[in-house]
Write a structure and sequence with these properties.
Elements: H1 3-14, H2 20-40, H3 48-60, E1 71-75, H4 83-89, E2 94-99, H5 102-115, E3 120-124, E4 135-141, H6 146-153, E5 157-167, H7 172-176, E6 182-190, E7 199-206
Parallel strand pairs: 1-2, 1-4, 2-3, 4-5
Antiparallel strand pairs: 5-7, 6-7
Helix pairs in contact: 1-3, 2-3, 2-4, 2-5, 3-4
Function: Specifically methylates the N7 position of guanine in position 527 of 16S rRNA.
Keywords: Cytoplasm, Methyltransferase, rRNA processing, S-adenosyl-L-methionine, Transferase
GO cellular component, one term: cytosol
């Protein structure tokens, strides 16, 4: 199975309908990750097939959780996951990719230009130093434990904002340490096509 077929099969399994140009952008992004990986150390994965399953399809499980959002921040974005795949699928969604590693933000800038994604802004710096932006959704993939994620990013949420934290196995211990000021809306088990690993989405919001 080639990359295009793998991506199409994965999208179908996720129930996503993308235009041919969106599919092409996702494959171009995979090629960019592979090309720049040796220089910027963006992912431990070396082959494009694994990048499609572990990064692209995995990132796209975020889409149902941001369907009403207009602004999103991907904290600790690294190589651009889940922000870049989300931006390709949701050109109407304004996305900020934030990372403190300037090597990685250089790659992100390059990727955004090459892919022509004008709904993305790249920001370099520590999350606690960002004070000029408030968004509908703050997301991250394995950025920090839930309690730390909340305390480091709560200032980024607008008045109706919420967190969508992408996790691996069910985070029993982390959920026990969530502050009393935060409500867990849901913890949903995700199915990532072609990925034999547990994934969960934790949706949380500040209590009013």
């Amino acid at each position: 199975m080639n990359n295009k077929q793998q991506l199409q099969e994965g999208l179908q399994a996720l129930g996503l309908t993308l235009t041919p140009s969106q599919q092409l952008l996702l494959l171009e992004y995979v090629a960019l990750l592979t090309k720049w990986n040796t220089t910027y150390n963006l992912t431990a994965l070396r082959d494009e097939s694994s990048i499609i399953s572990h990064h692209i399809l995995d990132s796209l499980t975020l889409l149902p959780f941001v369907k009403d959002a207009k602004t999103l921040m991907d904290v600790g974005s690294g190589g651009g996951m889940p922000g870049i795949p989300t931006a390709v699928c949701r050109p109407d969604l304004q996305i900020t990719l934030l990372d403190s590693n300037t090597k990685k933000t250089s790659f992100l800038q390059q990727a955004v230009i090459e892919l022509g994604l004008d709904n993305i802004t790249v920001a370099a710096g520590r999350v606690e130093a960002v004070h000029d932006k408030k968004v509908d959704v703050v997301t991250s993939r394995a950025f920090a434990e839930l309690a730390d994620f909340i305390s480091l990013t709560k200032h980024l949420l607008n008045e109706n904002g919420y967190w969508a934290a992408m996790k691996g196995v069910y985070p029993y211990e982390e959920l026990e340490h969530i502050p009393a000021s935060v409500a867990v809306v849901k913890v949903e088990k995700l199915h990532v096509p072609m990925l034999d690993a547990e994934r969960h989405m934790v949706v949380m919001k500040p209590k009013k």
